[in-house]
Predict the 3D structure of the following.
Amino acid sequence: MSIEPGFSLLAATRHVGWGGVGKLRLILEKLPDVHVVLHGDEHAIAITKQFLGSQHRFDAHPPSKFDVALVINDPLGANGVADLDIPVVYVDSLPYLRKTDDDVPELARLSYYCAQKYPIDLLPLTSPLLRNWKDITWIDPIVPIPQSRRGGRGIVINVGGLYTYNIANLPGDLINDAVDAYLNLVLFPLVDILQKSGREISAICGNINLDTCRRLRMKVPDHVAVGPQSPYAFERILTDADLLITSPGSTTILQAMSINLPTLLLPSQNRSQFPNAQIYSKPNADVMHWPNSVLDMTKLAQLYSKGISALNSYIYQSMITAAASPELSNEVSAIIRKAVSNAPGDGVLSPRLSSLGIAGADQVAQLVTQVAMGQR
């Protein structure tokens, strides 16, 4: 694809897990000669730069005028950028989660609303605003260019962004305690189960803090990669894997799909991962759902109408309570053990995912360029 060089781009993403910044990285790779300035508060910009690494350069001084803005999963941010009179290309990687007008930007002010494709017959759009809007641009999943998968290195465990999920402004102690609970309920039992069954682990990835990394390194051989990985290192790790066991983040699921990597899904960490596990797995697949004694799905469904703060508070507190109970902890371990023991050779992801495509980064880059050139 030929991209016109030299235009100025304002880029922003909401830090909910690592999916948004991962998609930003892949789109920017299709725009190598563009002058990019990151938008947001200093903390968000620092996280983005740290995640993307030295392979991406950003202009420290903004130009007097931007040709275009790219905003990912941040409706308030998109509205703020539109207030600056900059044309906005908006990317929504989870359109099926949107239920109210506040979940999406002001659509009339966008140049393009790019919604990532998913099996829509399994989970129809619930937002009246999106459902009745005719100008959604459906794009393929935004995934890395698929590499030939070599395999042979064993199992990769991934727990995703963890500490970066606090978009509901919940107390930090609640988030930290919930993360610790998830690791103790899910990650450490999984490592023990795999080792006792003689399965080789090649990597344990995710936004894992230093103390947890030290605990894990005491349990696994020295050659096992433990802790956060750069996007490029994670791609290499996946191409060497025989099996991925991951929390149900859509970006990682679709990346595994693109290289035909057999995948198992861990219990969900937050509100978005529950529908992810539903729509991206095979019918009746043995996905590792929380037992009802830990998390009541009927109550969870009722809380959807009360907003993200109520939802995530219930999810986090349920995990904390379960981690403090030996009986509930054993129930979770039993579910993990059964899913690992009975795992199909090709994993639990739906074969339908391959029909969604893999060209999303190219498609968005083309739209960004089209808008930028139209401003000149």
Q: What stands out?
A: The two ends are 21 Å apart (CA to CA). The longest strand covers residues 8-13. Residues 172-196 form the longest helix (25 residues). The domain at 155-354 is CATH 3.40.50 (Rossmann fold).
